[in-house]
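Batch job 17 of 40 flagged for manual review because the log was empty.
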Amino acid sequence: MTLLSSSEFNIETCPPIPTTTPSMHVPQPQSPSHLPQFPLKTLQTARKINSVHTEVLVTGFRNRILILVTQYDKIGSLLYTTLDSLSPISFLSNSNSTSGDPPTPSRTTNVLLGAYSTLYHLYASLISEMISRENPVDSRDVVVGLALWMGKEGEDEKNSKRALDLHNELFDREFFDEIQDMIRECRVW
């Protein structure tokens, strides 16, 4: 192979590069009718909870639901909850229940990103169970991102993380109820 110098190269003498030929057919991707059409269903809301701006974003994918709850404008810790199948024994043991409600399947929760927090683990499990109760036929896994301000107003992020560690075992029901209400406003299940 010989290289041409720039003085020897002439673009006008080069043959044209074919872009397509009549025999070339590029197939267009077809969307199966059973799949939801793009764009994905995404809803979000924002409000102040305990004087801290809180945002919730929920996106429904075909196989998962993504829920982000942030007070830092960050993703925070990501937790992944999967639906455990009901065994016939658990179904039969709950069939004698006087409430008449079908048994609620349990979920397994794992941390994908970020530090382990018992409180975040609890929040992700309860959010996932809420979705299961509200739509029992929806068996999608749930990915929950939590970046919550657990400190006092005016504290910086570093002190808030220390406060999260100190308050890890505490569960503020009113705070969590407000988060659940925001998630319900963004219902995609």
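Reviewer: the log was empty due to a logging misconfiguration, but the result itself is present. The first strand starts at residue 41 and ends at 49. Unflagging and moving on to job 18.
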